[in-house]
Amino acid sequence: MFAIVEAGGKQYTVSPNQTVQIEKLNKQKGDKVSFDKVLLVADGEDLKIGRPAVSGAKVTGTVIQQGKDKKIRVFKYKSKSRYRRTQGHRQPFTAVKIESIDFK
User: Fold this and answer.
1) In which domain, by residue range, is 11 found?
2) Which of 75, 67, 71, 69 is nearest to 96 (CA)?
3) How many domains, in total, are found in the chain?
């Protein structure tokens, strides 16, 4: 069984007992999270596709961690003009453990 949910403007494929890193949510560790915008639900041969979302479908999970990804370097360069700029960035994320996928 798996589902495709939308969170933070991105789509994630999730299944029960899976941990997913999604865009940062304003939740604390241990809080319950519910995703109501479920785009697709598949359970063996049973497949439900939403237009745009599956009505009555809900994915629930628990926040495990708030953190930041690895640092990336943003380097700007223009040739022949001595222009060089370096900047770092760490994207914040929320790790969520998916507990259940419910649909009717």
Assistant:
1) 2-102
2) 67
3) 1
DSSP string across the chain = -EEEEEETTEEEEE-TT-EEEEE--S--TT-EEEE--EEEEEETTEEEE-SSS-TT-EEEEEEEEEEE---EEEEEEETTTTEEEEEEE--EEEEEEEEEEE--
For residues 13 and 1, what is the distance between their CA atoms, to the nearest angstrom? 11
pLDDT range class, residue 45, cuts 50, 70, 90: confident
| Tens-digit pLDDT profile for residues 53-64 | 999 999 999 999
> Is the model's pTM score more than 0.85?
no
Are 18 and 46 a contacting pair, CB within 8 Å? no
